């Protein structure tokens, strides 16, 4: 069992109204010191087998075609818990 | 400049319709091998100064009061790019 995480964030040049809303709420709640907030999505994909390079390539295709909108979003793919083989 | 990431995911016992929708779409798009998908949120908070333990405590408070709903969601706080001091 292995978990691959796809993080999808709005591109830097794209407005992020959700992040701005959080940014506006922080001082009202008494929090200071944050200079910027961006909000994106996180997908946790579980795989039964081992996460090979072929699996990661497939995850990148999922990220590009289904999980993100490449026009306005960037994504990163990371393996969170790789299967340990004895 | 340092970045702290707050990842907010639905608790395991909570239904996740967005994740289920992704899970249902994957085979239709020709992707196989994924046994489960969960969808959550990712917040990137930028700080001007150093990320001290006090800052991380404050981020945990933000996560509990504003960024997540502790009844149905779990969160994790990670420092992504700590400021390097010469």
Protein architecture, described:
2 copies of one chain form a homodimer. By secondary structure, chain A is an alpha+beta fold. Chain A has a domain at 2-13 and 39-81: Mth169, Chain: A (2-Layer Sandwich), CATH 3.30.1280.10. Chain A is built from 2 helices and 3 strands, in the order E-H-E-H-E. Chain A has helices at 17-28, 53-67; strands at residues 2-10, 34-47, 73-81. In chain A, strands 2-1-3 form a 3-stranded antiparallel β-sheet. Chain A is elongated and about 45 Å long. The two termini of chain A are 14 Å apart. The mean pLDDT of chain A is 93.
Keywords:
3 strands; three-stranded antiparallel sheet; 2 helices; Mth169, Chain: A; elongated; alpha+beta; 86 residues; homodimer
Q: Give the CATH architecture of the domain at 2-13 and 39-81 in chain A.
A: 2-Layer Sandwich
Span of the ends, CA to CA of chain A: 14 Å
Strand content of chain A: 35-45%
Which ranges of chain A are low-confidence, i.e. pLDDT below 50, for 5 or more consecutive residues? Answer: none
**Order of helices and strands of chain A, N to C?**
EHEHE
The helix-and-strand class of chain A reads alpha+beta
Kindly report the oligomeric state of this protein. Answer: homodimer
> What's the CATH class label of the domain at 2-13 and 39-81 in chain A?
Alpha Beta
Q: What strand line-up does the widest sheet of chain A have? A: 2-1-3
Number of strands of chain A: 3
Mean pLDDT of chain A: 93
Which pair of chains forms the biggest interface, and how many residues does each contribute? Answer: A-B, 34 and 34 residues
| Largest beta-sheet details of chain A | 3 strands, antiparallel
- What is the CATH topology classification name of the domain at 2-13 and 39-81 in chain A? Mth169, Chain: A
Question: What would you call the shape of chain A?
Answer: elongated
- Please count the helical segments of chain A: 2
Keywords (chains A, B): ATP-binding, Cytoplasm, Ligase, Nucleotide-binding, Purine biosynthesis
Subunit structure (chains A, B): Part of the FGAM synthase complex composed of 1 PurL, 1 PurQ and 2 PurS subunits.
GO molecular function (chains A, B): phosphoribosylformylglycinamidine synthase activity
Catalytic activity (chains A, B): N(2)-formyl-N(1)-(5-phospho-beta-D-ribosyl)glycinamide + L-glutamine + ATP + H2O = 2-formamido-N(1)-(5-O-phospho-beta-D-ribosyl)acetamidine + L-glutamate + ADP + phosphate + H(+)
